[in-house]
Amino acid sequence: MQSVYRSFFRRFDRGEYHVEQWHDVWSLLSTIAIRKCSNRRRYHGAERRAPVREIALELAEPLSTDPVPEQAAILAETVERLLLRFPPPERAIVELSLQGFTVREIGVRLARAERSIYHIREHVRQWLVRQAGDR
């Protein structure tokens, strides 16, 4: 109804409507409302938005965030190969990074300079980019 009123008053201000009696206003508002509803029905019934094209929620497959077994195996293999590239002190940095620790937290835990942690992380990033390019 707000859209109907907005359309009515906008066009009334521009002088497009001339009403003399209350029943003329009511009739005009009803006509505007019917046309707006008809236009929305056509809009939502357009083939690209047709309700018959929608899938019932209970019929749709739920999206899973878990990796499929093949993805899990590839990830495990990639992490294993990555960790073997580094000697134990640097490997600890990679492991803590993979666990979600920040550079500052890793530096405090391992008594390492933040710059060296960033350096090792950059090596990891470059290696991962090369690995992704090989696939």
How does the SSE layout of this entry go?
Elements: H1 2-13, H2 22-45, H3 69-84, H4 88-98, H5 103-110, H6 114-134
Helix pairs in contact: 1-2, 4-6
Mean pLDDT: 83
Please report the number of helical segments: 6
| H and E order | HHHHHH
Output the CATH class name of the largest domain. Answer: Mainly Alpha
What is the CATH T-level topology of the largest domain?
A: Arc Repressor Mutant, subunit A
How many extended strands?
0
Q: Tell me the span between the first and last alpha carbons.
A: 57 Å
- SS strand fraction: under 5%
CATH-derived architecture of the largest domain: Orthogonal Bundle
Q: Give the helix level as a range of percent.
A: 55-70%
Overall number of structural domains:
2
Outline: elongated
Structural class: mainly alpha
* Unreliable sequence segments: none
Largest beta sheet, briefly?
none
Question: What integer value in Å does the Rg equal?
Answer: 32 Å
Q: What can you see in these coordinates?
A:
This protein has 135 residues and is mostly helical. It folds into two domains: 2-53; 69-134, Arc Repressor Mutant, subunit A, CATH 1.10.10. It is 68% helix and 0% strand. It contains six helices and no strands. It has helices spanning 2-13, 22-45, 69-84, 88-98, 103-110, 114-134. The radius of gyration is 32 Å and the shape is elongated. The model has no long low-confidence stretch (mean pLDDT 83).
What descriptors fit this protein?
single chain; 135 residues; mainly alpha; Arc Repressor Mutant, subunit A; elongated
